[in-house]
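Thread: Newbie trying to understand structure tokens

Hi all, I'm a second-year student working on a class project, and my supervisor (Dr. K.) asked me to get a predicted structure for one chain before our next meeting. I've only ever worked with sequences, so writing a 3D structure as a token string is new to me. If someone could post the tokens and maybe explain what I'm looking at, I'd be very grateful. Here's the chain:
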Amino acid sequence: MPEIPVRDEVVYFKDSLRASPRVILFLHGAGGSHHTFRDQWARLKGTARIVIPDLPGHARSAGKPFETIREAADWVADFVKELGLKKFVLAGHSMGGAIAIQAALNELPGIEALVLISSGAKLKVRDDIVAGIRDRYRDFAPELVKLMIAPETSDELRDDVLQDVLSTRPETYLADFRACTGFDVMSRIGAIRIPTLVVNGADDRLTPLKYGEYLAMNIPGAVLKILHGTGHLPILERPTELTSVITAFIHSLDT
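---
Reply by user tm_fold:
Sure, no problem. This is what the structure looks like when written as tokens:
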């Protein structure tokens, strides 16, 4: 994986380096990494240049996780500058979606559109989830996975997600959860004036469908796509459907 210094700290990221007029910058969610978007990387890198950083304090990237979404959005502005991205679609999952929203509200130069996956304008994390991560991390991890995915998810994917969860330090999750809980832009979300795709799983128990509906109703011109039989991780639970939805949205930007 390539690396780049941002604020004098090493950041690891994936970059398809495809010569394309379109760039999609993906931002992972709480406790995640570039690996979260493994299916999107495989399926979309022939369509656009795909860039996926590991946020500070996640995976191999140096630094500490951000305590606020605003801090994370400011960091994204620096990352984009260091990488020399002039125009890009900003896509985020869960916490990554909140960071994308904040970046848009900050009017980060270069954002041409948003893709908000399983996210919301307010992201308070449930107290029982915070307590589970803090007090009994390894025992709680299977319970967290159960909350993340739809009941009909395969055992293979369930085990895969569990390994992803257990590969993350509990301190990282707790910092990310504090950032999410402090995020609330419900009164400001209507200020976004760029094309926006909102994607929500119908069975999402962490960012319920009403979160996506609120975004779609309050961001002018936003489009909501609901993936049925899907929980909080459509990026893994329904990668083919999600890729088709994102691809169609990307193509619509040219019309």
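A couple of things are worth pointing out once you decode it. The chain is about 40% helix and 20% strand. The first strand starts at residue 3 and ends at 6. Feel free to ask follow-ups in this thread.
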